[in-house]
Amino acid sequence: MRRSVGLSAALLCSLSLVVPASSALQGADPDPNQQKRKVDAQIDQLRGDLDETNADLANAYIALRTTQAKLPGAQAALEQAQGAAARAETANAIAAQELEVAQANETKAQDELAATTQQIRQSRGEVAQFAAQIYQDQGFGEFDMAMTSTSPQQFADRIALIGTVMDLQGQSMVALATARASQTAQEDHLSALRVDSEKAKRKAEASLAAANAARDKATAAKAALDQLAAQQTTQAATVKAQSVAEAARLQQMQAESNRLGAVIKARAAEALRKARIAAAANARAKAAAKARAARNKPGGGSGGSSSSGGPLSPPTTLGWISSEYGMRFHPIQHVWRLHSGRDYAAPCGTPVKAAADGVIIESGYNSGYGNRVIIDHGVIGGVALTTTYNHMRSIRLHSGRVKRGQVVGYEGTTGNSNGRHIHFEVYEDGNFVDPRNYL
């Protein structure tokens, strides 16, 4: 029987109803929503496996398993965030390089434009000087100089000089026109490069922001994983400490079970002895009656049988059967134990009724069983039957005789219980048996 000291009835009645038992938690699903639904379902099922474990231990263990179920998802999230951060860092480096190239191209174009502008400025100065000279000489300066030559050789030299000057002037005019055309082309090219630089700058800024965001996400994912790991360590220590306390409580409960078994066996032996005496007396009475040719109604044991065919009625017909009688594997302590009764889960405060006529031999609070009532039903069908009603919120009848269906208490979750239910036990001649044998 898995039992230990639990929280108060008022507090525990706010917990979930006991649900059917199931396997332990599985690994995380890649889909977060699907993972949450799966974990929630497994937690509910796990709570069913621990329905008669101390609430503190059960809650600590469920918290630990919940954390463990989150770890694979957190690890996957961290790896995904780190991968995204690495890709963002690479993209940011490429964008920064592209921006650097674009800015270098823009700077080079600016320098070339500045040189062309300076060349135009010089060419304009030269052309201005030519124009001033022509204006001053009224267009005949060089010609007059040639005509005033005193010798043919001097005339020829001056004519050649005039040709050279005219060539230089023409070259200056061509250079100025060419420089102006280059300036226009360079200005257009510079404008295009500035557009490229602006695009590269925006791309670099966006890449940097994405890289920073990815790094922040990876940092947050790492922190979340570290927190879960630390939380798991703390919760594991809590489960270990609670398990030690649970083992001590189970030893106390085993001692209580042994004591109660001895009491019930002694009562069963006495009831059977009296039943045999009554049966022998009844047999003699029948023989005497037959000799006198009279008929007597045969007698029977106390309690009678139910209309359903069994001598006992279930303690409640509300709710559902949350756990049957039989061996159970404890998911925390990893041992097999006998679940010594049948659990009926119903809303807190549901009336709990006597399974058959009998007498209350014990009632009150027990650290493991919580609020409990024990009814001796006497000998039924040749065996001594006793029933117990455990984990009740409160007890209505503490002593005296009871009738089948009479309310003895109200459903709750006291003692070694973490969900509201009635743990209904049947003793046959002082030994646990499956209640279904008599229902």
From TrEMBL:
Residue ranges, compositional bias (Gly residues): 298-307
Residue ranges of every copy of the M23ase beta-sheet core domain listed in the record: 338-435
Stretches of the chain forming a coiled coil according to its record: 36-119, 201-231
Gene3D superfamilies for this protein: Glucose Permease (Domain IIA) (2.70.70.10)
Region named Disordered: 289-315
Secretion signal, residue range per the UniProt entry: 1-24
A Gene Ontology molecular function term of the record: metalloendopeptidase activity
SUPFAM superfamilies associated with the record: Duplicated hybrid motif
Keyword tags: Coiled coil, Signal
UniProt keyword annotation of Membrane present: no
Pfam families linked: Peptidase_M23
This protein's record includes keyword Iron-sulfur: no
PANTHER family for the chain: L-ALA--D-GLU ENDOPEPTIDASE, PEPTIDASE-RELATED
Protein name: M23ase beta-sheet core domain-containing protein
